[in-house]
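Title: [Solved] UDP-N-acetylenolpyruvoylglucosamine reductase 3D structure

Original question kept below for reference.
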Amino acid sequence: MVQYNDIINKLKNILDDSDIKVNALMKDYTSFKVGGPADFMVTPRKNEQVKELIDLCRNNNIPYFVFGNGSNLIVRDGGFRGIIINLSELNEVYVEGEKIVAQSGVLLSSVSKTALKQSLKGLEFASGIPGSIGGAVAMNAGAYQGEISQVIESAVIVDKDGNIKKLSKDQLELSYRMSAILKYGYIVLEATFKLEKGDHDTIKDKMDDLNRRRREKQPLEYPSAGSTFKRPVGYFAGKLIQDSDLKGTTVGGAEVSTKHSGFIINKSNATAKDILELIEIVQKTVKKKFNVDLNTEVRIIGEEKNN
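Solution (posted by the thread starter after getting help):
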């Protein structure tokens, strides 16, 4: 990897100084509120800057990771060696008839509110999902029988060679918590959603109902990354965990939520190590009791902290 000062100078050729942070604590940027320092965090404000940053990292063998809202991410306590690309400032949304175009850093919940204002139906399921558009497309995010694949028309991406391309819905290869974005290492710049005209009050009532159900059933009062595990075929992760008598199990400040067993929460100043150890306990216990593999939905990056 190129030297520290060289990286700074190269970044300054692409971004304003104010959009470059050194040793940024990732716990300040993730919904789990854990994570050590990233060597560099950069915040591009234009699609072309994202392309230039990817080119910089690839041409100089610099590790990088791209994120939006940090709502589906665990960064280990040692932090991240390389460049974190924070897309939160790519946040423009506009409406074209029954379509909504949103940049990758826009919150999915904000796009659903835009749809409501325009009396467009189809995104009600997304009103309580905390992630950004980029992460939502990459993970084919969903809840309450709805998911991104049902409403997306296309996405503009940067491929691993730094080319900006527009992919159709079919080219996105969307499946349960998977997509071409994750499969091929693409980065989402923006997405277009095709919705339908509906009744404003009916759309609002559905959103209010789903958000009420979410508040009642999920431990939203604690930091977490939402559902920690993917749903195994033929099972529900939360029920497997509950039936394994793991509800309320703790490691340090991390806990299997007593409100919803599918959530691991940061109950009291947990470290990433606490959370990851608890994830491993859950996986091993469920495997032993039910012979079912629980795979994490949350993404895990970074290095362990040296004691």
